[in-house]
Specification:
With about 90 residues, the chain is mostly helical. About 75% of the residues lie in helices and about 5% in strands. It has one domain (about 10-85).
Length: about 90
């Protein structure tokens, strides 16, 4: 849900900040996911190695990717709300 930012320059700045943040998170996740794919392609035997109590690396890495996506989503939402709140405060002060 988007807050009631006044239309104008400040709203465009907030939108640009949110877009840049989303792109940064996307590429960070892409690097981590690319590591999973690279292991699967280049050394798939490594994914079968038991890491923790009989659970192999593929399962740990896969669940790690899911958890990372959720963490990034929550973090993105938190930071975007902060950007919007800062913009609203700045607008009220002026």
């Amino acid at each position: 849900m988007q807050s009631d930012l006044a239309t104008g320059h400040e709203s465009e700045i907030v939108s640009a900040k949110k877009a840049r943040l989303g792109i940064k998170f996307f590429f960070l996740y892409l690097i981590v996911y690319g590591g999973f794919v690279a292991i699967g392609v280049l050394n798939h035997e490594l994914l079968a190695v038991e890491v923790f109590r009989g659970i192999n690396l593929a399962v740990i890495y896969g669940f790690g990717l899911i958890v990372l996506a959720v963490v990034f989503g929550v973090w993105y939402n938190f930071l975007c709300n902060r950007y919007e709140d800062d913009a609203e405060r700045k607008e009220v002060q002026s």
